[in-house]
Structure formats: C-alpha cells, structure tokens
Amino acid sequence: MTRLTTGMLEGIPADLVSYDEALKRGTGLGLFGIACNAAGVPKAKARRALLSTVAAVVPVTAGGGIIPGFSEAVREIIVHLGCRAFVTEKSDVGGLAEAVKNGADVVFMADDDLFAAFDLRRRRLVDNVNATAKGYVCALDALAGGLLGKAVLVIGAGRVGSACVRTLLERGSRPAVYDVVEAKARALSSECGITFEPDLKRALSRYSLIMEASGAPGVIEKGDVSPDTTVAAPGVPLGVSSQAVPLLKDRLIHDPLQIGVSVMLVMAACGRGEGQNIAERRT
Hints:
Strand order of the largest sheet: 8-7-6-9-10-11
Structural class: alpha/beta
Order of helices and strands: HHHHEHEHEEEHEHEHEHEEHEHH
Shape: globular
Number of domains: 2
CATH class of the largest domain: Alpha Beta
Radius of gyration: 19 Å
Distance between the termini: 36 Å
CATH topology of the largest domain: Rossmann fold
Largest sheet: 6 strands, parallel
Number of strands: 11
Mean pLDDT: 94
C-alpha cells in the first residue's frame, strides 16, 4: 500500500464540500452516490445505516508510524457522509479498546500494509484496496456514460490495479493491462483472461478510457491526452503530469483518500465486507 504523506492530506477537511460538489458535477453522483453505487446499496438503505452507525479511527504506530493528519482526514470524510465518528486518544491496541468501550460499530485502522474498516457488529472487514477499486470504477463508469462492452486500459498490475481489473470485468467492460514490470502484467492478463499491452505509449494512443493505478508520478504526459481521454486515477501519487492535468479538465478523477474511505464506510455500515456474518455462523 502506498504510504500517504501529510502534504497529500492537507486541505482535505476544508475542501470536502467543494470537492464533493465538483465530483457531483462531473459524475452526477458525488461521494455518497459513488459509495452507494460501488457498494451495491440503495441510497435510502445506506443513509439509514450511516445514521445508526458510530465509527472510530484508531491511529497505528506500526511500520512508518502515524501520519500527521491522516486519522483526522478519515474522520472528516466519515462525518461528511452523515455518520458519527471520533479519533481515539490512544493508538494501536489501546485505541482499539477505547473504540470498543465507546460504542464504535466500525473501526478504521491502517498500517503500511493494510488499511481496513472493521465491521464489529457482523465480524466483517472492508479492505481499502478493494473499496478504492470499486469506487474509481464506478466514477469512470459515470464519466464514460457506462462501461458495458467498452475497452479500458489499466496502468499498473499491483494490488489496486488488479482489483480494478476484476471490478471492470464484473461491470462487463473489456480491460487491458500494462505494467512497467512486464511479468506482473502478463501474469494478471493470463489469470483474468484480458489483453496484455506491452507498449504504454502505443496503448495510450489507442484507449480513451484509462484507470491509472501505477503509483508512479507523471506516467500520462501531455502528448498522451486526446479530446476523448478520460482518466480515473486511484494511484498515489497522481500518475498524470502537471502539463496533462489541464487538458483533461473534468475528465479526470483523483483524490488521495476521499472516494476510498467513502466506499469503505458504506460497505462496512451496510454489512458488505469480507467474512461470515454472525447470523450466518449460527445457522
């Protein structure tokens, strides 16, 4: 998992409303709409679930340590969607105990390898990688007026890119994959039965719908952008050069945290995480 920096998180709480409004203008959905669509949950049901859910964000010191502003940014995104949330005063196990004692239904925790939302009521978890892929594929679907039967180039065959490929297949699109490490792209291509693209520049000239999940800066350059190019970029840092960004205008979706956390929250609050429901275990 790419480690975020404080610089990437600055401004998220203050800009949430304006970011959400811009997202809604571009996709017609906004953060809540994207989260519900990605989770496969009707808006009314999701709204009821969020109103009855308390979320806690627990700082974690493992690995590279606590990223200043991360827990607070996650909390503000959760609150923005209409759910009660708090950041625990303690970290790690002490923070988890604090969350449980204070009635948390969903607990968000992240280290260098995993960012997850734990649904304590149902013993389920939502992995940020899968939630982010679902959210960005949903956003691209909205920008493109649907993805059914359409070809999409996925740049990056890592965890997020692989999750994007599987989500695109679920939506009936025709993904192709490129990775700077050719063996990774070939393996994903073989596993999922999709097209392998060996030449990035050539591929960018042939695909107008792109999922940029490489986690490398400036992968898509000014000369790669056509009037039809549409990019959903879950990769961090942004894989679109500063010269190319203005050319994409409202055909670019990218943020460091907002879409992924929104989808995680709705999935966790509505019991759409991984694991066996307690009720299922008793039957």
